[in-house]
Structure of Major facilitator superfamily (MFS) profile domain-containing protein:
Amino acid sequence: MSSVLTADLSPSRCLVFGLLLTAACNLLAAVVPATSPTNLAVVLAVLWAMNGLFQGLGSPSCARIISAWCSAKERGSFWSLWNMSNNLGGALAPLMVSLGAAAGWRGSLLLAGASAAFISIFVAFLVQDSPDGQVEAVKSHSEGIHLSGLSLLWKGCLLKPGMACLALANFVVYGLKSAMISWLAFYVQAHGHTALSAAGRLSMFEIGGLFGSLVSGPLSDKYWHLRGSGAPLVGCRVQVASASVLAILLPAMITVVFGPSRISFIAMFAVGFGLYVAQALAALSGLELVTGRAAGVEEDLPPLESMVEEDLPPLKSMVEQQEALSRLIIDG
């Protein structure tokens, strides 16, 4: 709900404070004394919950800034660049963790916290709320400007025509993404492949997602331009997302399950590509339907929906995470 509480605050400042507070949580977790395994586990759980809360300031702030700076004809391209940063960050995070792992898990947290604090300095000096420096940038339709709090979430976002359908589409897309990430490795290994082979397929999924995120916006922008400026922008983006699901995602998933294993790597790339195109354009379509103040609230809906799927991992994964936490506490 951070997007609702900060709807009238400067998005650039919220982004900076979110980075700084996230950095503080990581640094505190890295230096907390291990007086006992139980106390350490409780402190880490509290700090990690706060870490997630403060990270929630980032996505809605970025959505409001993009909405303010970019016109409709170019918003898709810049949205794709920003959305791709999620894939890039996910790819770089393990490398950063491995660099800090020389000093143990505390070293990894120190490196993560220091990098967030370092980036916040650049954001503080380089990012403005809008081209004219105003906190609020309002789109051509001005309804919802005076809404606040939960009214902004309900009337300015959820009750918008088509928003419920987009929310449902996001729910399905995030559910599929969560299933691929959580179950793919188990599925591949159950069919006689090694853990290394399973990891390779998951990497191809993420690489495909990176390219899908990158091209989704420019592709939908180009399609809208070809249709003419009188064509409905949201409709064009939804059509591109639907085409990606029907022509790329579904055939690729069928190939992964029933096709020969020698082409499964290519199929996994296609699955990631099609899924992330749909995910990016579903979120972007929601952004096009709301006012500038509600842009951050709309961007918070997909993470809210994904909590049902991504925060309830498979039982085997939960057991493995518990064992990993136990080893971390004992070694710490």
About this structure: The chain has one domain: 2-131+147-331.
